[in-house]
Amino acid sequence: MTRALVSARESALLKLTRCPCCGAGRVSSSGGRAAAVAFACNAVFGLDANAEVMPISVCPSGSYVAARALNQQALKAVREMAGAP
Ligand SMILES: [Zn+2]
């Protein structure tokens, strides 16, 4: 692991102003070997013990998409039972 790569990863993290998954705004950040950036969606990305960027707290956007799909399936099922096209 080169120092330059650690520095480049930290820099990439700290440049994030929005969640890379859903676009929610940044709410806090800290630099150094334990660099971390937190977003309004509750996602947190940071450097792990190997200085690799890791999701410390995952973005829930995928779960919102899944919940919406389940709601749409349920609505479609009810409409079909009611005879709607
Ligand atoms: Zn997010």
Compose a concise summary of this entry.
The chain is of the alpha+beta class and 85 residues long.
Would you write up a description of this structure?
The protein is an alpha+beta fold and 85 residues long. It has a domain at 3-59. The protein is built from 2 helices and 4 strands. Strands 1-2-3-4 form a 4-stranded antiparallel beta sheet. The protein is rod-shaped and about 65 Å long. The termini are far apart. The mean pLDDT is 92. Bound molecules: zinc ion. Residues 19, 21-22, 24, 39, 41, 43, 59, 61 line the site of zinc ion.
Count of helix runs = 2
Cα-atom Rg, whole angstroms?
19 Å
Number of β-strand runs: 4
Helix content: 40-55%
Distance between the termini: 60 Å
Mean pLDDT: 92
List the helices and strands and how they pair.
Layout: H1 3-15, E1 26-30, E2 36-39, E3 44-47, E4 53-57, H2 61-81
Antiparallel strand pairs: 1-2, 2-3, 3-4
Bound molecules: zinc ion (ZN).
Key words describing this protein structure:
single chain; 85 residues; alpha+beta; 4-stranded antiparallel β-sheet; rod-shaped; binds zinc ion
